[in-house]
Every structure is written in C-alpha cells, then in structure tokens.
Amino acid sequence: MQRLVEKVITPEVLAAARAGDLGARRTLFEQMAPAALAIIRRLVRHSALADDLLQDTMIAMYEHLEDFRGEAPFAAWVRSIAVSRCLMAFRSPWQRARVALESWTEDCHPALESEGRTSDLIDLDRALARLSPVTRAVVWLYDVEGWSHEEIAQAFQRTVSFSKSQLARGHARLRNDLAAPLTSGLGIPLGSEIDGQ
Amino acid sequence: MDSDNPHDHELMSRLRRLDASAAAATPAFDYDGLLARHARRQAGARRRQVLARGAAAAMLVVLTGASLWRLGEPSAGATMADAGAMIAPDEALPEPRIVRADTYLAVAALEDHLASLDDALNYARVSAGPADVARLERTRAELLTSYTQLRYAERVSANF
Lengths: 197, 160
Known about the structure:
heterodimer, A: mainly alpha, globular, B: mainly alpha
C-alpha cells in the first residue's frame, strides 16, 4: 500500500481543485482518502469513528485549500490534518463515550486487511491494538510516520518529555505483550497464574 | 531515535513492516458520498441550531413572563410597605380611650383657670404692681402643679 506521504499531487490538479473544478476535487479525494483512512484507522481503530474522521479530514482539506502554501508536500499537509482530527477525537469526551458504548454492540477493532502477513506481524498488530489510544498514536507517529518528539509534543499540546515517556511506555508494553504470544482474548497471558509467572 | 536500545530499533522495523504489509484501506464512501454525508451533517447541525435557538427563545419568553407576572403581583416587601402606609394615618389620630367624666371636667376647669390667670398676669405686668404679679405667678404655679398631677393620675389610671 502506498503511504499517504508518498502520494504526489500535481500542481495542475491542485490549482484546478482550488478553482472549484469538481473533477480535480474528485481526483484529490481518490488520491488522498484511502491513505488518509489507513493512518486514521491506525490511530483510532474504531471503524465508524474512523469514517467520520476521514470525512472531517477531507472536508477540512477542501475548505483550507487556499491556506496550503506548498512549503511541505501536499500529502504531508493532509496527513497533519488527519492526525490533528484524531487527536481531537481522543480529547473529546463525547467521542470517548461513543466508542465505549458502541464497543458493546460491534467489533470496533477490526484487524486491518493483512494479505500475506506473517504471524509475528499479526501478533504485533494485536499488541498495538491493546495500547491506549494516546500511547499507540505516539508510537505510530514516531516509529512509522517519522515524527520527531518535538512535532508529537506540539500536536498533543504537551511537552517533549510526555512524548518520550509515552514512547518508552509503549515500547515496553509491546515487548511485554510480544514476549507472551499465547494470550487469551482479553490480553491476559494464559496460565500465568498456574505457572506462577 | 533517542533510545539506543536495540530492541527499540527492532520494534521500529517490525512496525514499519506491519505498515508496509497493510492492504489499502477502502473508504466506506466515495466523493459523492462524502458530499452527501457532509450535507446530512450540516442539515443536522442546522436543525440542532434551530432547536437550540427555539429553546433559548422559549426560555426567554417564560422568564420574561414570570418577571412581569411577579412585577404585577404585590411582593412581600410591597405588602408590608402598603400596610405601613395604611396604618400611618390612624396613628396621627388621637388614641381612643375611656376617661372618667369628673377627671375630664377637673382638667378642663384647671385649663380654664390657667388661661384666666395668664390673661390676668399679662394685664398685671402692664398696669399692676410687682406684688400683684408675684401673687398671680404663685397661684399659676400652684394651678400648674395641680394640673400636672391630675394629668399624671389620669394617664396612670388609663393604663390599668
């Protein structure tokens, strides 16, 4: 899958979309939406909320096309919008309540499609899903998206120490979970009490 | 990365492999669906805004009506003030009381005597000698003492 930051939008399409050309706007959606949804699902992992956040991201992209100055790649700009929308959802008590309520009625943590994925990656995906949303976001943004601690701190409106501590905590938790691959559905290592571990 | 922990580097590479292995995510809606969803959300937001404004207007009307109703109705403070205003003229009138007829007549007689003495004193100060004036003043003082005692006795008997 091509990552969001690797998507390239030509200046002609961008200019046409700014001018209100519907075809160019549709092209922008088709180019950006799947990759934006991938990162949103990585951070949120709640399918209905992820769809809403994708909608917010795309609408914000269209509404602020005039504000894009071209200092960074367009796809990186869209990614920053998507991440900021996810962080807003983390902070929203209404969204947290919605996720908690809907978790009772539907599978909100679908594993992302994994064609040809090895078992260690499947374990990693499950371990990642068990992290808290904030810790998971810090780990993903730092390790995969390549953000710096300063960028993460700015996005979360916290300090650099917050980013570093969340990353260290996330890594420790992931290593711990991956070290005990035989787990129950609740993430509790099976037989740990029996074995006295 | 800040950490030199080799396990962190290994974890990072596994996470990147996980990202690379993920299949393309397919949005639940296309561009037209996005516009339709956005339109529905905006319509919902407008409906909520209208409802909120209606509720606020209804609340304002109820509060204004209640305030006007309370203004029209005499308040507790106003009732007390009105009662005070109604009582005040009564207090200006002489207090009704029962008095003895003989006491009333004695008081009236003394007041008449005092008035006559005042006339006599005025006349004496102009035409009579100092001895007559002194005799009239002693008489007036005695009458005034009697008058004072009589009014005191009248007041005391009225309170029993």
